# Entry
Amino acid sequence: MSEAKDHEQRAKVTVQAQQVAVRDGLLDVCLRRLGTTIADRYRIDELLGIGGMGAVYRARNTWAGRDCALKVFHSAAHQGTSLLKRFLREAQAANRIQKNGRLHPNVVDVFDVGKDAESSSVFLVQELLQGESFATMLERQPERRVSLDAALEVLIPLTDAIATAHLSGIVHRDLKPENVFLCAGAEGSPASAKVLDFGVSMLRDARMTARNEILGTPQYLPPEAVYGSGQTDERADVWALGVILYEALVGECPFGSAGEPFFKVMHAIAVSDADALPGRTQMAPEAWNIVRRCLAMDPLERFPNGLALLRVLTPLQRPGA
# Structure
């Protein structure tokens, strides 16, 4: 790879992974994969981003002649650990979310998983999406917020996907704007939302979270995930969806920004009172009533699952809006 291309890739990843602690050594490892082939058929063409468990590349299935997104687990040294199991669980969870006998249209399609014989790298293969994350879209908006109609255009299909996940025995546990991708539609048509990253999801028949183990992104975690037993259920996703709706309508997360210390965010959540949130005055009353219930400190006071939340969100959407 040329020096100019290397610099371009580094700059791109730095922007996309600014909330992830990426050591130079790890970035170098990821960049060295460019131009190589995994499992004799996936040629790695571009580094798209780096996360906590793996790096994501644009790749080409040379057998099928199809571009795809290739997620490669960071280190073979961790194979056999719970971290690797969570990485592989992403494929298992996503493919369980079926609607009318097919993969839910608002869930990213994971269609292959394997281990490269030569490098021992574990990988999974997803559809390659064109567009941007909901987080990126919000960053482009004046005051980083959108109208209720624009928010519902994203939140209703997102909640429909999560409702279907809950019916399939799956709790996502890491819902946030970065994990909602807005796929570019045809000219004049709206973008369609897809849920990403089921890596820390909880499957009803394969619970892997140890007691007191905290998983997820602090600003979107419910209080019981930290101050309770560590065990969460569908209402944890309801909480996160309420945070996302608040953020989209107000322009800021109710419980601190991404750069704030973990303990400060957790304290804000622990002492939170939805009625005291300043953003309530910026919402229509019907939207605020939904957000307020999603953010109830007591899980029993929230909507019990995604389906119950979907039923109150859908009537807010104006025909043709």
User: Anything to note?
Assistant: Residues 6-11, 13-23, 206-212 have pLDDT under 50 and may be disordered.
